[in-house]
Amino acid sequence: MKITPRKLNTFTIFKLPSAYFCGVRTKHIDDSKCIVTVKHKWINQNPFKSMFWAVQGMAAEFSTGALMMSKIKESGKRISMLVTTNNATFTKKATGRITFTCNDGHLIDEAIKKTIETGEGQTLWMQSVGVNEEGVVVSTFNFEWSIKKKS
């Protein structure tokens, strides 16, 4: 069964309710990229009239993690995944609808192939860039993912 935006949004209701209630929604996913949006509103604001940084982080991480889940499912193998490190840069106040895009699907393929072949864990860095409705970058998140084949 293919992972779709609708299935991912349903997944957030049951497994990541804070992301769902804050408005994190998947708009697109394919082999190479995932697009997730979140709109600034009362429930996800900070005292400075913009989106709380952690809400941006949820959307950014989900854009990388959804790609990872999709590729693992495609492999047909039992593989665990975990964020081990992350960092972010904030360049503008996040107001309105913020769109996070991760274009790193190609990086996952090689890591999965190596972990299946060797049985050893692999790490890879993935990036998600958040832009506002005017196309201006508001934040950039980097996540180091660790994957390992389960026995």
Concise structural overview:
The protein is of the alpha+beta class and 151 residues long. It has helices at 5-15, 17-22, 53-75, 105-118, and strands spanning 25-29, 34-39, 79-90, 97-102, 122-131, 137-149. Helix 3 (53-75) packs across helix 4 (105-118).
CATH topology: Thiol Ester Dehydrase, Chain A
Instruction: Report mean pLDDT, rounded to a whole number.
Output: 97
Structural class assignment: alpha+beta
* Biggest sheet details: 6 strands, antiparallel
Q: From the coordinates shown, what is the CATH architecture?
A: Roll
How many DSSP H or I helices? 4
Order of helices and strands: HHEEHEEHEE
CATH class: Alpha Beta
Shape: globular
The radius of gyration over CA amounts to 15 Å
CATH superfamily: Hotdog Thioesterase
Q: Walk across the major sheet and give the strand order.
A: 1-2-4-5-6-3
Organism: Flaviramulus multivorans
InterPro entries: DUF4442 (IPR027961), HotDog_dom_sf (IPR029069)
Protein name: DUF4442 domain-containing protein
